[in-house]
Amino acid sequence: MDLVRTLGQPLIDTLCRLSDALQRADVPFAVIGASALLLHDVDVGRTTRDLDLAVAVEGGMEAIRPLLLGAGLASTSIEHRFKTEDGSEIDVLAVDPAWTPTHEIRLADGGRIHAVGLPDALQRPIKIAVDGCQVLVAPLSLLIATKLHAATLDDRPHDLADACAALLGYERSGDRRFAVDYERFAELDYETSGAFLAGTDTAEIASRQTRYLVDLGIGELLTSARLTGRFSKGPMSKRLLLAYREGLHAQQNEPDATV
Predict the structure, then answer these.
(1) I need a surface site. Which of 107, 124, 245, 252 has the fewest CB within 10 A?
(2) Which is nearest to 111 in space by CA: 141, 79, 149?
(3) Which helix (H) or strand (E) element contains residue 92?
(4) CB 162 within 8 A of CB 147
């Protein structure tokens, strides 16, 4: 995928500059959202000129703001949103490790932002080379989890579409799909086995709380009209979500090898 075309050179330059500043300050961070999916080579069917970033810092947004401004970003009227010199928007979600519950971000005005999966992603980011610099990106399986949870919170159909695009292409190269136990999981086929693997990968690295909330969200999504035959991609999307949830549950249902 041509990242310069899909993200734009100015946004890539900003990302590299932010990555350098955050790493120098020893601040854990990870690219999230649609830009992260593009960095994982997921075809979401659109370009983006915006960036979403998660950071972990005690004190939350006010503690990280000086560093962001020093890296060339400009504040906006929205606390967690910044502008770049070329007008692109960057949303920075500052996870405060001292705050509970861990899946919420506290804003200065008393508001809350759901951050399901972000603490997990910040602990296990993936290094991806981008135009000569190394950036930290949330693992694809956790990006899928965050997108699925986000799809239950608002009326943004692209969150579900993004998650399904990632599920459809998950582990399509390599041989992991061929290693799935299709006898044990008879409802799976090659097309849905990637979603199953995404679920097992999520289960390995996500906290129990994240797994619970994502599972709850999937249950809600499965009742949505968007997953019915009224929509062209509805039935396949439903199969992908069912396969992902099966993978999410698979490890806790592993047979005891000692029996």
Answers:
(1) 252
(2) 79
(3) strand 89-95
(4) yes
**pLDDT string in tens for the chain (259-residue length):** 677 667 778 888 999 999 999 999 999 999 999 999 999 999 988 877 779 999 999 999 999 999 999 999 999 999 999 999 888 899 999 999 988 888 888 887 778 888 999 999 999 999 999 988 999 999 999 999 999 999 998 767 799 999 999 999 999 998 999 999 999 999 999 999 999 999 999 999 999 999 999 999 999 999 999 999 999 999 999 999 999 999 999 966 554 433 3
- Helix (H) and strand (E) counts in the chain: 10, 9
Are 61 and 94 in contact, with CB atoms under 8 Å apart?
Answer: yes
Q: Quick count: other Cβ atoms within 10 Å of Cβ 123?
A: 14
- 127-150 in b/e form (b: 16+ CB < 10 A) is ebebeebebbbbbbbbbbbbbbbb
CA dist 36 and 182 (Å) reads: 31
Residues of the chain with CATH 3.30.460: 3-138
What CATH number does the domain located at 3-138 have? 3.30.460
Distance (Å, rounded) from C-alpha 199 to C-alpha 129?
26
- CA dist 1 → 160, 162, 184 (Å): 22, 16, 36
* Token representation of residue 151: 């799809």
The answer to whether 22 and 29 are in contact (CB under 8 A) is yes
